[in-house]
Amino acid sequence: MDLSSNAWENRYLKNDIGWDLGEVSTPLKEYFNQLENKEIKILIPGGGNSYEAEYLFKNGFKNVFVVDFSKSAIENIQKRIPNFPSSQLIHGDFFELENSFDLIIEQTFFCAINPNLRAAYIVKMHQLLKSKGKLVGLMFNAPLNKDKPPFGGNKEDYLVSFKLLFNIEKMQACYNSFGNRKGRELFVKMLKK
Predict the structure, then answer these.
(1) Can you tell me the distance from the alpha carbon of 160 to that of 182, in angstroms, rounded to the nearest whole number?
(2) What total of structural domains would you count in the chain?
(3) pLDDT digits 0-9 by tens, 64-95
């Protein structure tokens, strides 16, 4: 199982990106639509082509950052949204990121990293969030794959894993998932402790 930067880059070059919906997912779109403070600083890790970043940016959120292993993914965003600040498109490793955010959006990143990195993911999310910062998004509540992404998971494990560093405000079956994700996603909203 190769989850290196080169492996992800090759997937974008070959258009082997089955997780890419080609648009912002409905659950995240509805969440974004109710956000009132457009000044908040938002991170989308493992953002890929990041239609979420595009949607937020076009709706007045100017402090949106995307980090991804794939240079092509970052370039795709820049091509689609030429006025998106290039300094906010980070080609790099999420685990090496040093910054602080009010909100981090989870969308197919947790399920893409090696499951051995999940504890490190939780710690890094906690480090990157400002006081009272939120981790919000979608996580799979299904077994999925053991040897390649997307790696699955379940609500019980998430509750145990996240509760040490986060207050879990919401972790429930997503009622408006996209296509074949229906019945397999949880909408999560967690507040940094």
Answers:
(1) 24
(2) 1
(3) 999 998 888 899 899 999 999 999 999 999 99
Nearest Cα residue to 178 out of 3, 30, 14, 12: 30
Specify the CATH number for the domain of residue 88: 3.40.50.150
Which residues span the domain enclosing 129?
A: 5-14+27-192
Residue 113 vs residues 4, 38, 151: alpha-carbon distances, Å: 10, 30, 8
Rounded CA-CA distance 97/92 in Å is 8
Query: Tell me: the pLDDT tens digits for 19-34?
Result: 445 568 889 999 999 9
**Taking the model in full, what pTM does it have?**
0.88
